From TrEMBL, chains A, B:
Membership in a protein family: Belongs to the class-V pyridoxal-phosphate-dependent aminotransferase family. NifS/IscS subfamily.
Source organism per UniProt: Streptomyces subrutilus
Pfam family, one: TusA
Highest taxon, organism lineage: Bacteria
Domain UPF0033: residue ranges: 394-418
Catalysed reactions listed for this entry: (sulfur carrier)-H + L-cysteine = (sulfur carrier)-SH + L-alanine
Cofactor(s) named in the record: pyridoxal 5'-phosphate
Alphabetical list of Gene3D superfamilies matching this protein: Aspartate Aminotransferase, domain 1, TusA-like domain, Type I PLP-dependent aspartate aminotransferase-like (Major domain)
Gene Ontology MF, one: cysteine desulfurase activity
Protein name: Cysteine desulfurase
């Protein structure tokens, strides 16, 4: 049963399992104690720190273990903001950071700080120029992911690091998605990562803070981990995390080359196999194991259920799969279609057969969902003639994604080329998906207008 | 090789190991995901929460898992203080709380809050009257441990809970040391605990917040664990923690009765086997598996090394075993001897033979340390007569514990009964250990006076 959601959590690596077993016997005691069990634990901890620091590309005394990648990000962001509060209170983040970074930014804003979001292009990539523009003399910290967790786009970290260094602003890199594949290039200042993304056990994050970066922990004092990560050391998991990082790195290049071929296959075939699909994320500058696409006229949650029933575990950034009923902030920032969104992230060792199996199942799953939603083939252009009205208005109030777009697609043929259709919707997703649909179908999106109930989105038929 | 420091960390329980193994296969995925691996993880998480809540004595939806007991305490304290900031900013804690509570209190003070410490008696116990006196209309939260981690004294939680309820103040109980032995009695509001104290793996704490307690998390937002514990769920460890808590509870009564006999044996024999020793902590109201004593004229760190060499792992609250060179705040708050301090905490399954072996080794270890420090048997009273000076002053500046007390013991015989000896010392520990020595030897402690260099401690010889 193929599991294709390793960007969320990777199954435990065999090396991690082995190391965990061994350190359950050797590493349960308090490494701060002086007796033999404590000394043994200390040796294991020191060795794990050395191994992790080598993989990250920093000194061992710059790296601490945290209880999760989220803790590493929260601690790193808060620690630099506090350490540099004399420089200013501005935090610069990209619009497509992981929620842990954006939540830390929200907490900073709630406490009176200021946040600037750097926009991304349609591929989800920032530019160094975008950061240069956002940085100001009062910027305390800039954050940028090494690669995006939803669409796999690799960010220009080294270039952004140069821009940050010129401005005298430290750069925190969330390396959660890329660290298994290699160290982060460029002169970053702070780095955060998460072991369960590379087949380590959950319960371990990494936080590296370069010497010279002003850092002032915000949590209550604690002697462990240089005062940067309170709580009893989760040593067996730390040992397993470090061992598996080393093991994953040893096979990273070969495995990346292999998985890139499988992902390319998905990228190429999915647009041939499934009508009305958009592959999102950068076509070349991307993680080797991850591909994301969105399907018009499809409810993401139903599609995930269908794929799950067929034996494939994937995830989605569609609004209907989130508890808040809003599409992923990444897809929104990119301005791409969010309905029927599917993220496939292949674990190490994924076979071509597994990927082929997925590609066999996918078209039927998508068309099955469309049938259930009453979607027939898009009405061909030009059937409306003569007495067709120049403009139409559709009341889509109360309808949830993907229904407003389905209604629009069904109606567009009822106006002549040059005519307009206006969709009145109170579903937040319409703001993203109606313009995306226009782009995909070759129509012009004319803009939105607030109504007493909902928002009116107007589209001009062009083809 | 007997390990007698289970109050610091307990070796992994066999049931925890089994559960951990199983859940490494079944529980590595994200329990928030809808596919089968996620649903399986969610089932495991729900079952673990039910089991832990039953052991704690709360509703499952009142309990969240944190990355450690320290995180549970920090989150619990900060969350209630923020939730009740309209009531006031005062935090009431006992003087002998675990450092995680005291550090949270310090953080509160640094942020402008106010903290009141409730004193303890010579056994380390608070009274409900002490809490009643400390509570005020502006008290946001009171904290009390269920039992002390250094001396084993059980606190009157149920009585203090009544006093808090009358004052309308929530009570947070740090149950880290007692939870393996049974649920905390009384109407507590918030409870924190740590799995590695009961043979669960590290990386898991419990935080229970009763319905109706105003609680406002202070960390950045996160959907997991009811918004009270950010970061990816450490599910295998959580499953193991819940399973071992249940297993430990099943044998708790029988094991407590058995270990209590062994601890009683240590309490009784240590004072017969080792001269000049003081057993500290409450003689009856105490944890079943823990006993603490202090040895006059002994360097705690050297003693720990001697015991370690003999195969026994114990811990100490002596100043020389701490990085700050101050004795444990618990011993200080109790006003008992801190030099040569030894805490013995027996793991489940400790045998009588292991305890007998320790009692065989201990007297030689103590006398060996005393010999190395040049301590002969205390000078018998009355040898000084006729020409002895009425008062003596000893310059002990620069000497570290236990030397000032050794100097005092060697000098007391040089003044007649009724005469005084003044020790001038710049070792912080003298303030605690000189009065304690007086109590043990039957002399009168007359008080201290600041000197240009150090402090003068004066003792009147009575016997």
């Amino acid at each position: 049963m193929p599991y294709f959601d390793t960007a969320s959590a990777a199954p435990l690596h065999p090396v991690a399992r082995q190391a965990l077993q061994a350190s359950l016997d050797e590493g349960w005691a308090d490494p701060a104690r002086l007796y033999r069990e404590g000394r043994r634990a200390r040796l294991l901890l020191d060795a794990a720190r050395e191994a992790a620091a080598e993989a990250v590309g920093c000194r061992a005394d710059e790296l601490v273990f945290t209880p999760s990648g989220t803790h590493a990000v929260h601690t790193g962001v808060a620690g630099v903001l506090a350490g540099r509060r004399r420089a200013g209170s501005r935090l610069v983040v990209s619009a497509v950071e992981h929620s842990s970074v954006l939540h830390a930014a929200q907490a900073h804003e709630s406490a009176g700080g200021r946040v600037t979001e750097v926009p991304v292009d349609r591929y989800g990539a920032v530019t160094a120029a975008g950061y240069a523009e956002a940085l100001s003399p009062s910027t305390a910290l800039a954050c940028l992911q090494s690669a995006n967790h939803e669409v796999g786009t690799v960010q220009p970290v080294a270039e952004v690091a140069v821009v940050c260094a010129e401005a005298g602003v430290p750069l925190l890199v969330d390396a959660a998605q890329s660290l298994p594949w290699g160290p982060v290039e460029g002169a970053w200042s702070v780095l955060a990562a998460s072991a369960h993304k590379w087949g380590g056990p959950p319960g371990v994050g990494l936080l590296a803070v370069r010497k010279g970066v002003r850092f002032s922990p915000r949590h209550p004092a604690d002697e462990r981990e240089s005062g940067r990560s309170p709580g009893f050391t989760n040593l067996p998991a730390i040992v397993a995390a470090a061992a598996s990082l080393r093991a994953v790195r040893a096979e990273a290049d070969a495995e990346a080359a292999r998985l890139r071929i499988l992902v390319d296959r998905i990228r190429r075939r999915v647009v041939r196999l499934v009508p009305d699909v958009e592959v999102v994320g950068h076509p070349e500058l991307r993680l080797p194991h991850l591909v994301t696409f969105s399907c018009l006229y499809v409810d993401g949650e139903i599609l995930l259920h269908e794929l799950d029933r067929a034996g494939y575990s994937v995830s989605s950034g569609s609004s209907c799969t989130s508890s808040t009923l809003t599409p992923s902030h990444v897809l929104r920032a990119m301005g791409v279609l969010s309905e029927g969104n599917v993220r496939v992230s292949l674990p190490l060792g994924t076979t071509a057969e597994e990927v082929n199996g997925f590609l066999e199942v996918l078209p039927g799953a998508v068309s099955g969902v469309r049938e259930r939603l009453g979607v027939t083939e898009p009405v061909p252009a030009g059937v409306a003639a003569g007495s067709a009205p120049e403009s139409l208005e559709l009341d889509a109030l109360g309808l949830r994604c993907p229904q407003p777009v389905i209604e629009l697609a069904a109606a567009i043929g009822r106006v002549p080329v040059g005519g307009t259709v206006t969709v009145v919707s109170d579903d937040e997703v319409a703001r993203l998906d109606i313009p995306a649909w226009c782009g995909m179908r070759g129509h012009a999106y004319l803009g939105e207008a607030e109504r007493e109930a909902g928002t009116a989105y107007t589209v001009r038929r062009l083809v």
